[in-house]
Structure formats: structure tokens, C-alpha cells
């Protein structure tokens, strides 16, 4: 298999501007990700309805969602799933954070994410992003970049929140940008 330029992913550099993109938002309207905001952003890119580990992870997020908001974070989740799959999951699991859907492959690649083909039509009917967790500064630059090429490796949300509160309260710089 050969790589064409459109299939290549560019690694995001710590401390640089996060790409700005828009996706449709569950419940109506659109969700803008990236760019300057009034506060910090926690962005979670999840694989989709077919992923049991994603449901567990987003369940943990639901339990800590208020703590993230109390710490000044806007919480946003996105996947390549269509509205129907997101609607089914929200109805089943009761997630209350903002969820965007129909994430485009070009945006996955701009975020530096790994992209996978489905293993079968029973899994899903489209390419999807492997997990990515980003903490974005109010100026739209990256503070934390945690990407994985598979579903089993993701940061612990309580540890991440504790670290981010410490970072914010102590005005710590972006690390790993040398």
C-alpha cells in the first residue's frame, strides 16, 4: 500500500496553534474546535459507537464532567460517527457534554490523529480516528497532546484534570516543545 499526501498525518507540535474546524453538534447547530476562546478546552476524539472502550471512557468523563467545568474547561467530544449513531449512544448512556459528529478525515489528519479503516462492515461503515485527547489553552494553542493508535491507551481523566489544575494555578509552560 502506498501513501499519498492526503493519507499522511502531520504531528502537532506542543505549544502551537490547534487547527480550527467545525462539526455538526448533537442537539443542533455546529461545534467549533480550536481558535481563541474565553477559557480552556478539553477535546476528546473518540473512535465511535463501535468501540466499547470509548463508551467506558466517555462514561468516566460523564462522572467527572462537572469537575472539568468547575476548573474552567469547555468539554467537547467528537467522532466520525453519523448523527444516528451518536443519538443512539446519547440515549443509551445519557452523556450530557457537547458531542460533535461527522468528523472529516482531513480534520483527523490535521490534528495529528491516527486514522483506521473498519475491520468489517459490522464494525462501522467509514474510516475513523483513533483516540486523541487535547487540552487547549484559551489562546487556541496546545498544552497537552495525547494520541493513540488504538483504543486501549488513553490518559486517566482524573490524573489529567489534577495535572491541568496544577498547570493553570502555577502558570506552567507547555512542555515537550524543544
From TrEMBL:
<dbReference type="Pfam" id="PF00578">
    <property type="entry name" value="AhpC-TSA"/>
</dbReference>
<protein>
    <recommendedName>
        <fullName>Thioredoxin domain-containing protein</fullName>
    </recommendedName>
</protein>
<dbReference type="InterPro" id="IPR000866">
    <property type="entry name" value="AhpC/TSA"/>
</dbReference>
<keyword id="KW-0614">Plasmid</keyword>
<dbReference type="GO" id="GO:0016209">
    <property type="term" value="F:antioxidant activity"/>
</dbReference>
<dbReference type="InterPro" id="IPR036249">
    <property type="entry name" value="Thioredoxin-like_sf"/>
</dbReference>
<dbReference type="InterPro" id="IPR013766">
    <property type="entry name" value="Thioredoxin_domain"/>
</dbReference>
<dbReference type="GO" id="GO:0016491">
    <property type="term" value="F:oxidoreductase activity"/>
</dbReference>
<feature type="domain" description="Thioredoxin">
    <location>
        <begin position="12"/>
        <end position="166"/>
    </location>
</feature>
